[in-house]
């Protein structure tokens, strides 16, 4: 997969990637809900483009080991 993606990143600069944690909520003893928003600053721009934002929700489970 890396060999397939490497040429893309040679010709397309990777924009700054910004993330913000919106919520961390304990669901039960070993389960946590994490909500974030992630965004990029488009090339040649100084501000985030809200149309490119992604909302992510993760459930994290802690195991004994």
UniProtKB/TrEMBL annotation:
Keyword Transferase: yes
GO MF annotation terms: transferase activity
Alphabetic keyword roster: Transferase
Protein name as annotated: Methionyl-tRNA formyltransferase
């Amino acid at each position: 997969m890396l060999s397939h993606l490497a040429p893309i990143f040679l010709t397309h600069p990777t924009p700054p990637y910004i993330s913000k944690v919106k919520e961390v909520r304990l669901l039960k003893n070993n389960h946590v809900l994490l909500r974030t928003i992630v965004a990029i600053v488009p090339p040649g721009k100084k501000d985030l483009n809200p149309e490119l934002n992604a909302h992510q929700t993760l459930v994290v489970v802690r195991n004994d080991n």
